[in-house]
Amino acid sequence: MDEKLQVIIDDTADKFKLENHTLKRHHIFREEIELHETSYIFNMEWVPNDAEEFDEDYNPPGTVSIDVDLESKLVKRIIFVDGVNKTEAEFPPAASTELTIEWIEEQTGLEFGRQFKLVHEEEKELLFQAAVDNVAVFPSGSIEVEYNEEGKLSLFSIDGFFPNEDQLNWEPFSLTAELVKPIAKKQCKLLEIPLEDKEKWESVYGTATVFVSNDGKRTLSFDEVERPNSYIDKDTVIEWQEPLREGFTKRPVDLSLEATPEEVFSTEKSTNKVVLTVDDQQQAEETSRNFLRSEFPEESGQWKLSGLWPEKGYIFAELKPAAPDVRVIDRRIKLIIDKNTYQPVDYIDNSVIVDMFEHFEKAAQPKLTSEEAFEKLQQHIEITPVYVFDKKQNKYILCGKIDCAYGVDAVTGDVVMLDEL
After folding, report:
1. Helical spans, DSSP H, in 357-398
2. Tens digit of pLDDT for each residue in 58-77?
3. Cα(148)–Cα(262) distance, rounded to whole angstroms?
4. What is the spatial distance between Cα 310 and Cα 291, in angstroms, rounded to a whole number?
5. Which residue in 85, 124, 163, 225 has a CA-CA distance of 20 to 30 Å to 232?
């Protein structure tokens, strides 16, 4: 056992009073975080000493799985199998939100109100989200806490991003409805939504969620904000003269997150920052073209390379139809490319999902214009201050989240709740 890991094991056993448990398994896995970086998580599975005999691949009730970040030494997850908690640890009890918040602050080093806020509360379940002075952030982080029927902790988990003061640009929120109105109007678009109970597509006008910088000069789409920082926009139509007769053969893909102590504690380990070079991008584009030539030989010009990003030692290429589609469920392919050889190794095609709606009745032709629809929608549009991670500045900037829970039926002109369709 590595000495550094043994220290964490001993500290964990002492902290959570696991003297009546035995460490049966442990391993290290990578967890990708912001800024192209990777953190290493040490997972420990502690089995109660009074557990009945069990299969080696099976964890009996009462087993507690604990994840610790190897750099910060902070606990990331605590999961009790079947919700059974046999420890004598001083966890906060259920129905005591204040004590739970204090315990979370102690475990995470975060400050309630300043860096996270309560968004959902039930007797045996609490959900928190990342925040800056109670203002939401995107991409966000979340903290979950659950209790069993006895009121004892059964789950604690923290995931995502919680910005600190060094990552923020502080400023007062200054967006007004007058400034936002023309921006929101541009986001009002015709959509086709599948109605499963009627087996038909419905034409509806809605406004896409968008983030507007506090000065009103920039807009960031929801997809743009949620993408990995390493994502590179392409929007390149793929064409070819001749099909490629060589068939595509899928190969094994190693997306394993396992890591060794040598990788983690090596003084020569890399910074884990991965950026695609110009050559990487050109090679990936050519690989994408050859893949399409092979799999869709008659569809030259009908596909586009929408973006590239590195992940787990591979290059991922996102392929979409070149022609825009108003349907909310659109076709897309995720092509996985070997980073060293630039050979395609596998792909994920959502055609199965798209084909589920192939027999649906086509949407009726709209009778309203987008301008007429927006007149009905504008009173329902919400402007919410949020902090958004700006990849250009490498900081969270204050924005207004422009959102609308309603849509307008493009045929009847009725205002409808989008969640109810």
Report:
1. 370-377
2. 889 999 999 999 989 999 99
3. 38
4. 18
5. 163
